């Protein structure tokens, strides 16, 4: 199971004329000031189910109010309820859809206290806390609570979720903080929370069931916090496998976008694979992923990047290159070629299957950011880690991308595949 889930983009965006805040996938954006949400919506009744029960609208837009300039962030709306209640519910918009992570994580500042969610306890009987560490050296810290999660016409009951930046727990232990920056506001996150719909069922798995030194789960008392084990049932969970039906995976279906970008885009998040008429597989590439990490391989030129993944929570394509001009201090971590640069790559699964050649273009990030007009930027790319290619949100534009969840079997055309896998 991946530990450093790439929630935010690999690099921080620069502060240009407006504040650029990265998308969930491995890096937090710099912000001149931090502002909390101005209050929270009142509790409400459970919303009426949509006409298509397994479909949820997703958007790429400007993000929550007063959070700066957000680009290539895929948002949806999540309803959270006190377990078993249909009236003690709250609908939260602009929650980041992240296929590079697992579990629901909502900012405390976006949640009404009247939800009164039950907190879980750890080994010592004290509250159980969760730490999500990101590759940009930022982290999310907060207690684990249970809630019913409603996504369109689907409900996952009594799901362990993380409440980010709960003011009752504002002193994360060194094992979580490791000198990083705590995410505490919507402005820092560029969203009101994260819904991790990746390849795995929970955020840690067996590594955290017997080892209290996992640096993911902790218990805290008045003195401080210590590492804790967490049973599978207690761990922060991907809600999709907990549905009654349509629970073997997800499909993200986004329209194509012109290379110049657009202010806004609307697409679909569809639950299940091969279970209803709207989530059928027709033809394409099916790549099984490593059962422990979710990695596949990207062949880029002479390189075989074995720690590659497809991640809707990253706001660009992130990979290491010495040939493409970097933006420098103007937009650290992003590429700024003088002219648009076109590259091609192929993806290889652990099943040995290879995708067709994928061509992609990279434009100057500073030019793309200019004016802060377009939130949809299909040619945005930046620097990544050695041996890794992060296929972020630009990969999704104009594609139907399937994510098969570990241990779940999906019908794909005339055959079947057991997750984890990617298909497109």
Write a brief caption for the model:
3% of the residues lie in helices and 34% in strands. The chain has helices at residues 174-177, 186-189, 365-369, and strands at residues 20-21, 55-60, 69-70, 74-81, 89-98, 102-107, 118-119, 128-133, 138-151, 154-164, 181-182, 193-197, 217-220, 225-227, 249-253, 265-271, 286-288, 296-300, 303-310, 317-319, 341-348, 358-362, 381-382, 389-391, 400-404, 409-412, 415-418, 421-423. It is globular.
Q: What secondary-structure arrangement, pairings included, does this model have?
A:
Blueprint (H helix, E strand, L loop, with lengths): L19 E2 L33 E6 L8 E2 L3 E8 L7 E10 L3 E6 L10 E2 L8 E6 L4 E14 L2 E11 L9 H4 L3 E2 L3 H4 L3 E5 L19 E4 L4 E3 L21 E5 L11 E7 L14 E3 L7 E5 L2 E8 L6 E3 L21 E8 L9 E5 L2 H5 L11 E2 L6 E3 L8 E5 L4 E4 L2 E4 L2 E3 L1
Parallel strand pairs: 1-3, 5-12, 6-10, 9-11, 19-24, 20-23
Antiparallel strand pairs: 2-4, 2-16, 4-5, 4-9, 6-12, 7-9, 8-9, 8-13, 9-10, 13-14, 15-16, 15-25, 17-28, 18-19, 18-21, 20-24, 21-22, 25-28, 26-27
